[in-house]
Every structure is written in C-alpha cells, then in structure tokens.
Amino acid sequence: MITLQATDALLAVDLQNDFCPGGALGIAGSDEIVPVVNALARAFPHVILTQDWHPPGHISFASAHRGAKPYQTIAAPYGPQALWPDHCIQNSHGAKFHPGLDVPHAELVLRKGYRLDIDAYSAFLENDHVTPTGLAGYLRERGLTRLFLCGLAYDFCVRFTAIDGTSQDFECLVIEDATRPVKLPGSIDATRQAFAEAGIQRIQAEEILGS
Ligand code: VGL
Ligand code: ZN
After folding, report:
1. Is residue 64 in some structural domain?
2. Is 112 labeled as catalytic in the residue annotation?
3. What is the position in ligand 1's atom list of the atom closest to the CA of 155?
4. 153-205-169-51 Cα dihedral, nearest 10 degrees
5. Would residue 130 count as lying in a domain?
6. What is the residue range of 43's domain?
7. Do residues 84 and 70 touch, judged by C-beta distance below 8 A?
8. Residue 14 annotated as catalytic
C-alpha cells in the first residue's frame, strides 16, 4: 500500500467525451476507468484535471492538412506531429468531461492545446518541448511534489505529462489500470520504455485504494 501525503496530487488527464467510446477519438475501454478515477479522487488531498481544448482547424487535426489522414505523422515546425480526427473542440460536447466523472473537489482544470499552431500532449510543456503551460509553477507555489497520473491516453498525454513532470523534478507515478492507450503501432512499448528510462513507477489503483 502507498500512504498518501498532504503534498500528493492526483492528475486526471483528458477524461473527455471525445476520448470515450462513440467519441471522435474514442479509446477502447476508456469509460471503464471513470469509476476508478472517481474512487481515487476521493482518496487524494488534491486533484487536478486536464482538458484537451483545441480551436477549430487545429494543427493536430488531419482535416487541417490537405490530403492528410488521421494517425499519420507530419513534420510540424516544432517537430513530428501525429494527426488525429477533429476532437475536443473548445466548448463542444466532445470536449466536455465524461458525464460520469464525479470530482467536484478538483482544484484546477488545466486546459492545453488551445493554440492553433501547436499541440500539447503534456500538461507541462507544449509539443515543442519548451513552451511551459504554467503547471510546474502552480504545483511549486502550492508545494505539491508528488503526482499520481491517471486518465487518457496512456501512450500520449499521460506519457508525456509523466516524462515532463519528472524532468521538472516532480515525482510522477502512473496508475496503469486507471488509464487506457490509443494504441498506435509500437506506442505502448515506447511508453513503457520511456517510463523505465525515467524511473517512473507504474502502479495499480489498489495500491492506493486497497483491494
Ligand atoms: C490526446 C491525442 C490527441 C491525449 C490528445 O489526451 O492523449 N491524444 N490529443
Ligand atoms: Zn488533442
């Protein structure tokens, strides 16, 4: 069992309609983690939510690039960028949190990916890997030092948030059974390898909740 401390926060990533079955970028089984995240959230002294929040015509949308298809990768000015179906458009139904998400005590909702010309998988840095979102400063000012990550998607936004959080000296742990992957070719193995190299622990929800 892991004993939670006052300086711990649960970071629940992108639990939005478009990432759930039937959504624009629906992830298999993603709705199954909602009750697990709710139970985890009740156990934590601090909870932060992130929300993927794109303008229409966003650079990560295949529809914004002539002849492009979802799931291919393009060379953006800031580096490689995977293309997706249009998703999580600001103020749309798809951008809303899953209706079953029950975290009224969430202290911060951090929106990301809101600039037309750059995507942000990580809750810490945009996809140029240098532009900060402000989250590190927020956590430091509040004295929150250890982050437990859950939500969507394991191999994209959860992955890059954990990696960047670790680089910025936060202890990051990933609650694996409270996440689900998009699953592009090789993306799960690459995520596990990145976590191993960064010393990011993969844990199970029962280590916090008990069984
Ligand atoms: C995500 C693809 C595109 C995620 C966001 O939340 O992992 N994946 N936008
Ligand atoms: Zn997105």
Report:
1. no
2. yes
3. 7
4. 40
5. yes
6. 8-58+90-209
7. yes
8. yes
Could you tell me the distance, in angstroms and rounded to a whole number, from the CA of residue 171 to the centre of ligand 2? 25
- Cα gap 55→92, rounded to integer Å: 10
CATH number for the domain harbouring residue 102 = 3.40.50.850
Q: How far apart are CA 207 and CA 151, in angstroms?
A: 17
pLDDT-derived band at 211 (thresholds 50, 70, 90) equals: confident
Q: Is the CB of 84 under 6 A from ligand 1?
A: yes
Between the CA of 182 and the centroid of ligand 1 the distance, in Å, is 8
Our answer on whether the CB atom of 61 is closer than 6 Å to any ligand 1 atom is no
Q: What is the pTM of this model?
A: 0.97
Q: What is the pLDDT of residues 98-125, one digit of tens each?
A: 999 999 999 999 999 999 999 999 999 9
CB atoms within 10 A of CB 161: 30
Tell me if 66 is assigned to some domain. Answer: no
Q: Is residue 70 included in any domain, yes or no?
A: no
Which residues fall inside 5 Å of ion ligand 2, going by CB?
52
Ligand 1 within 6 A of CB of 154: no
Write the pLDDT tens digit of every residue in 141-181. 999 999 999 999 999 999 999 999 999 999 999 999 999 99
